[in-house]
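Issue 218. Parser rejects a valid record. Input:
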Amino acid sequence: MHIIVVGAGISGTVTALTLAQEGHSVEIIEGAQAPATGASFANAGLISPGHCFSWAEPGVVGVALKSLFGIGEGLGIYGPWTPALARWATLFAREATQTRWLTNSKAALALAGYSRDLQFKHAGISQDEYGGRHKGILYLYGEGQTPGPHDAALLRAAGEPFEALDPPAVLECEPLLKTARVKFAKGIYCAQDGTGDAARYATAALKKAIQLGTTARFGERVLGFDIRGGVAKGVHTDKGYRHADLVVATAGLASRHLLASIGHNLPIHPVTGYSISYESPPGQKPSVGAVSIPHKVAWASFGETLRFTGFADVGVPGESTVHKRFAELGRFAEEVCPSLKDRTALKWVGQRPMTPDNLPFLGVSHVPNVLLNCGHGAMGWTMACGSARIICDLAAGRRPALNLEPYHWNRYGLLGRRTALQS
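Output the parser choked on:
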């Protein structure tokens, strides 16, 4: 089968490789000049089933409203103020009930754990190729803070091992924090989580896919689908027509506009995140990945790179907000690792393709021969290998390992759920 994969971020490149490994003829088309130039370029690098719970949780609407008045922490809401943003925000608010949060988080955990296991056990890309480490992630809490009341039950139900740590145990797990100026009262250590540079992984996946015969077309933008008799026969690009037996939409934020051309009205909206990357100071490399829950900042190392990533701004903030976010991120990095003071950091701003329930659109579309693999939000790296395997199973006519109902394209109407959620 000849398959076109639209988009060469982490989802697209891993999908292309997985399909090529099964013997398909694969063509990957990307508007940028290189792979992983968007949300995959300098993200947090966490492969984190241990904390992939939905962002649409009870109480988040109040936090979002505070942000409109400039008193929110780590979360902002910015324009452009469009009907698409209004719809996304309404849907997000309606997902923030306990019942829906539990159901969405359960579905996220299922896909994230499945994907993590495939990546570290079966993907065929060595950890050295992308600075990968399967050493766990430490989720940290401040004084008076505790994990959510259902977090432990969700992890146990998913078979995810975790360990609660007191302050001495936190320092034993992550010796880097012994010299930190910021202190934590407790931690949750998820030993099966991991870290790695998503952009390097995407590059390695694409290289292996090309070795298997995949054609990569960069600097070529897909304009729409060729639909004949209600069936997709290929795509039209700004450089001509490309025939395909199957098309997979893995174009991140661009997937929403592309799929609108065949009648999909998918609520995928940009949520901006920030990262700063340093050359690791001598003897100051973290032992594990870590997330400060109160600060909404994560950090990890990939080879000689030490990266701090944080915040979530719905929409595209202006220059003053970006400057403020980088200043906050830099101050926090120096709190964790004082030897970073006066060191130069590589700054990056990226937009995550976020859905209201934080679950991707994954599986078949309403048009035969078009498959969806988009809208992963902050979990694109965590869910990449599992999502790619599901696409490969569908292309081969096999039943995927997971029930795909929670990720179905048709789960939303204009301002609410169209389909019922399974608990």
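Fixed in the parser; the record now loads. The radius of gyration is 21 Å.
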